[in-house]
Task: inverse folding
């Protein structure tokens, strides 16, 4: 198994284990708003409703991170979420991950639900134990190797990255289970770790939390290019072709069913499924496991590519398939890229026209580590779930956000994982951008040009590995000029909600100021600059 398995194992289990004894022992349960000083109350957006009762739960949830406090979690302890709606509720499922490993011993693939995407109720887990077919399939494949390998009697499992999607009247939950044992021996520096499996469970009623497991869909598969022996810790040329984790599912407008999956090693794969079974028709040859639709760098020679967590949606209004990808390591550097194609199998290209299927860097980048004033910021913001409310047709982006490393007063602060839900907006040329503030179901107001005037915090999401992009002040003057971090001019079209800053179109919306003290409504903007980098603003 490729090296990222070992790295993920370390991140999820060693990092979180470092917090096991720390749950409930934080030196400070601040929500990062206590130190915010409002210097100019006149600068609060006059078009918002200041009595709106928005969410108040703290971003530092370490005081309630333990299992016995799960009824208070709301969006605490969320990682790799996937969201789908059933009836009046949105349902969220996730990787087995929590601060201090509070989830351990309480089932796999935790679930919660919400009527408004803001307040969430914890529901328990999908599985009480690992499905038996995983161990059986693993050891069957080991016995068929040349030479045959002994069975692993007690595999070490990781339960990662499910994906929920409705098709017809059935909800399919594709899920990842990895075996982190080395293929031979005990040292991951001398042997690649064992394979991963993607399984399928189905339900017709998410509120019941009853699932019928359908078994294996695909597994990691070797292609004969490399052996499973590793030549030390610097050997990144992995044994398996595609890594069977991070599944997502899409049903095309013409009724085809596709599984999109993969992580780091050899890129992202797409394989067509049987519409009735939700599985490939056969897995006899390497081609049956799918073809690569995205890579990073030299895809022909590099078997270690820093991208994962693929998710494809189809936007009927634009006529494009959009491939969302997580780039880089997950604890801090995680950032989200997008490419698009008119065909489900690609080629996928970025906003600069570069071919991501052939390994070009994907642009635009729509999330990146960032910080507004009054908060230490958020890092590790990716592995997105992209979904649409069937009633409002509004698109949303959901992922985890982690607190940065070394936040004062919080033990193992980077192991604090808060679920984030954000609106997705669409630029005039058909590219998705996400809101700079998390969704709070703020009522829409009539935003005027007068509301735009005043001081804003603005962030340009330039790519810097593991570095936080911090906000800078920009003043929008009454005479339509700008001073501060951006100079020039601005105009606002009240009918469309489009703010133009030096020829850059930005989408303005009502929002919840999570960093203010006390929190309050405000207005924000999001868009792309001429280089295809996201530009975020908050008044």
Result:
């Amino acid at each position: 198994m490729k090296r990222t398995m070992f790295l993920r194992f370390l991140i999820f289990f060693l990092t979180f284990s470092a917090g096991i004894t720390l749950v409930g022992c934080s030196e400070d349960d601040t929500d990062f708003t206590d130190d915010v000083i409002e210097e100019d109350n006149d600068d609060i957006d006059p078009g918002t409703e200041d009595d709106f009762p928005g969410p108040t739960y703290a971003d530092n949830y370490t005081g309630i991170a333990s299992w016995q406090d799960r009824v208070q979690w709301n969006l605490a302890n969320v990682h790799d979420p996937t969201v789908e709606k059933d009836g009046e509720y949105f349902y969220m499922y996730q990787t087995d991950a929590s601060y201090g490993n509070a989830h351990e011993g309480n089932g796999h693939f935790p679930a919660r639900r919400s009527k408004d995407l803001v307040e969430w109720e914890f529901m328990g887990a999908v599985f009480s134990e690992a499905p038996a077919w995983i161990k059986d399939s693993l050891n069957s494949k080991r016995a068929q190797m040349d030479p045959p390998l002994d069975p692993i009697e007690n595999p070490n499992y990781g339960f990662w990255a499910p994906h929920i999607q409705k098709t017809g009247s059935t909800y399919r939950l594709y899920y990842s289970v990895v075996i982190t044992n080395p293929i031979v021996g005990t040292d991951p520096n001398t042997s690649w770790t064992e394979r991963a499996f993607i399984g399928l469970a189905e339900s017709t009623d998410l509120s019941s939390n009853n699932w019928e497991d359908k078994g294996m869909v695909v597994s990691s598969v070797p292609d004969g290019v490399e052996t499973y022996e590793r030549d030390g810790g610097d050997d990144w040329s992995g044994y398996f072709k595609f890594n069977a984790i991070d599944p997502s599912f899409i049903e095309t407008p013409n009724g085809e069913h596709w599984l999109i999956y993969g992580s780091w090693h050899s890129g992202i794969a797409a394989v067509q499924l049987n519409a009735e079974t939700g599985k490939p028709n056969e897995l006899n040859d390497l081609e049956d496991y799918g073809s690569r639709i995205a890579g990073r760098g030299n895809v022909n020679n590099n078997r270690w590519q820093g991208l994962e967590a693929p998710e494809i949606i189809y936007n009927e209004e634009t006529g494009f398939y959009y491939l969302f990808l997580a780039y880089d390591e997950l604890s801090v550097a995680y950032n989200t890229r997008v490419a698009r194609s008119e065909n489900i199998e690609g080629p996928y290209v970025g906003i600069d026209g570069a071919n991501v299927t052939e390994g070009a860097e994907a642009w635009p980048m729509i999330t990146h580590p960032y910080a507004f004033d009054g908060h230490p910021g958020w890092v590790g913001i990716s592995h997105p779930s992209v979904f649409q409310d069937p009633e409002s047709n509004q698109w949303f982006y959901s992922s985890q956000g982690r607190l940065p490393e070394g936040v004062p007063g919080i033990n193992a602060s980077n192991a604090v994982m808060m679920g984030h839900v954000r609106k997705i907006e669409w630029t005039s040329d058909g590219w998705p951008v996400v809101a700079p503030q998390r969704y709070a179901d703020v009522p829409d107001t009539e935003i005027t040009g007068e509301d735009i005037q005043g001081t804003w915090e603005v962030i340009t999401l330039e790519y810097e590995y593991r570095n936080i992009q911090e906000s800078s002040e920009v003043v929008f003057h009454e005479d339509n000029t700008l001073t501060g971090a951006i100079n020039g001019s601005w105009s606002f079209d009240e009918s469309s909600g489009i703010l133009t800053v030096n020829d850059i179109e930005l989408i303005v919306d009502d929002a919840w100021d999570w960093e203010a003290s006390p929190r309050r409504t405000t207005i924000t903007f999001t868009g792309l600059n001429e280089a295809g980098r996201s530009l975020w603003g908050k008044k």
Summary: The CA atoms of residues 349 and 356 lie 5 Å apart. The chain has a mean pLDDT of 92. The chain has two domains: 62-434, 454-538. The helical segments are 3-17, 132-143, 449-452.
